[in-house]
Every structure is written in C-alpha cells, then in structure tokens.
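lol ok so funny story. i was supposed to be doing the assay writeup but got distracted and ended up predicting the structure for this chain instead. priorities right. anyway since i did it might as well share w the group, maybe its usefull for someone
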Amino acid sequence: MSVARSVADVLRDHVELEIEAIDRMYLNVYVPHLQTVGATVGYLRKHRGQRFASTTAVAPMTEAFIRNIEQFVQHEGIDLVSFAKRQRKDEVTQQYLRRFKATEGVLYVGKAQEKARVMRTERRRSRTTGATYPWIVESTAMVNHYYFYCVDQDFGPFFLKFCSYFPYNAKLCINGNEYLKRQLARRGVAFEALDNGVKSCANPKLAQRLCDGLSAEKIDRLLRKWLRRLPHPFPPRDRAAGYRYQLSILQAEFSLTQVLDQPVTGRIFFEEVIRENLDIGRPSQVSLVFDRKVSRRTPGRFRTRVITAGVVPSLHIDYKKTRIKQYHKENQALRTETTINDTRDFAIGRRIETLEELRKIGFAANRGLLDVQRIGHDCFIGEASFQDMQTPVAANPRRRGASECDAARDAARRA
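and the output, tada:
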C-alpha cells in the first residue's frame, strides 16, 4: 500500500468511502402568532376573550402542562431526571441508550432551569386616573425546561425540549448521520458505524441517496408525529384556531466524511495542511471557500485556529457566524463540517423550507475548503514540471534555455 505524500495524494488515492450528510440540526419550534407582544395581546383578548390582557390567564394552562408531563412520566414508567448544573446531558442519554432495546420510544424526561424569552405582565399606573392596569412586556426569566429524549424508528435518537412558560417555545435536535444508520438498518444494508457517521457500507450509492433524501418535509413529519405522542402545552381548541407549532433553523451542520485507508494517511494530511494552510482564514482565502465576496465591512473575525485535543489536531475557520471544522475522526476518517449558526449570513430565511438551499451552501463550503487546501499545497504546475520548464536543454549540440524552445527539449528526449 502506497503512502500519501501530499494533500492531493490523500484526497485522490486514499479515500475509501465518501458521504455527504446533514449532521446535527438544532431547530426552533415556535407558534408564529405568539412571538410578539401585540400577537400575545391578540391571543389573550380576541381568542381568550379577556377584557384586559394579562398572562395570569395562562397560568392554569402552564400548571396543566406540567401536570400532564408528570402524569406522562408515571404512566410510561420512565425516569424524570433533574439535571445538575454543568452536567453533560449527552453522557446521561448514552447510559439510557445502552439499556434501550425497543424500536422507538421515550428514553427519559430531563428537567433543567434555563434562561428563556417569555411574555410577562407588569402593573402600570394611569397618569390621569391613578388606577393600575396590566401591561404585557417581553422579557427573559429562569424557568424550567423539559427535555424529552426519544428514539424514532426512522431518525434514531433525538430530543424535543419545551419551555414550561408561555408561549412555550421549544427546540428540536436531530442528527442526520443517525438517520442514515437507521435507514440502512431498516433496508438490511450492511454497514460499520463510526461514533457519528459510517465507516463502511455495502451500498455507498444508496447511502448517499438516503442522506440526500433527508428533507424538510420529513423533519416536519417527525415533529408532528411526536407532538401527538407527547404532552402538548396548547389545548385542542387553540390548535384548531391556528396556534400551531412551526419549525425554523437555529443551527445546521453539514458534514463530509472521507474514510481513509489507514490512520497514517490522516496524520499526513494534517501535517501538510497545518504547514501550508495556516493563512486559510484570511479574507482572500475565506472568499474562495464560501464563494462569497469578503470586504472590510464583512462582520466577523477572520482567522485560522489549530486546536489540539491530546495529539489530534483540528482546523477551524470562521465566516461571519458560520464555522468550518476539520479533524481526523477516530483516526479513521477526514471529517469536514460546516456549521451555519445564522442563515442570514447567506441572505436566506430561517424557515425549515430553506433547508435545501442551505444544504447546497454547506456542502459547497466543505468542498471549497478541500479545493483551497489541495491547490495551496499542490501547485498546479508541480515541482517536477517547474524544474522541467526552467532547466537548460542541450540540443545539436548548442545549449539552449528551457523556455527558449520547447521543441528542442522534446527532440532531445526522443533522441
């Protein structure tokens, strides 16, 4: 087996499997008609029929929601875990996953106090009459959040987190690589898993088609399915009146996993990249990676960071609020990840319907980074060709410069 000598060698000759997939997605789950003070007032006065708009009217709904969660936990026979401060939720979830044997269901419910955007009522006094009256304002507060950690037969592990205070905004977190594993397993396709990806697959083309098929519609169906199964903060009459949850993209990761033939190949790749491409975070290079014009007015810090965890380095590049991370995954694969934290970095809306357009941008950025690295380390001309062009050539028997006559050089070679 040959040993790679350059970035181009690694990417051309030593990649055994290549998968582009949506990785982690963190989505806002919200009721559009309840996100402003005016909309909340309309809900309370027109829909609820209050004479004066006050959030005290939704207190019974909050109490009912919390009570339904407690009853759900008891009925399903699952744990209600109160997360300790700075406790790693992923570690807790992995413990439950190792014991979980069903095709799908709820692993457990987690509870944590976190800051949230809320609508609250404050008392104000009339300047003319001196009487007090309620006034709704937008604010933040530390309130309880409930995490429903679940396993879906199509998507694998995910969680849905509800704020327990009005307007009960939620967050949905899914993983496209886990979706791929589930889909391969359901079709009986043999594969070997990485921690967050696939190391080998009996049908790579099918695997890529499955990744490409993870659409906004499928994610929306996942949400609807579990909203029907889990405790819901809004009563049926509210949902019938149009107060229904919608999805928007808070954060989306787009990954390119390139499984390498041997661990040394990945180490060679990063040695060459770190040596030759530490300027890749400069505006001129970033504009090539993201195919976007970068000027002095472009917000964000332009920098290249190499972060080493133990002996494994990772490369980090920023563009506005978007990040690219590149690392040697489990010493087996080159992983390039573009994380878009604000879709408006690319003049795209946040609604889930923009996922397809956002996917193209994320995957193009991954490829753009690899192209810049390949060109930056392996010049188009190449060392051998450069020496060939500038070395003098002896012909008939006059000595000539290399650039003087290419024909003379070719004739000398044939002789």
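The longest helix spans residues 355-377. The CA atoms of residues 41 and 62 lie 17 Å apart.
back to the writeup now i swear
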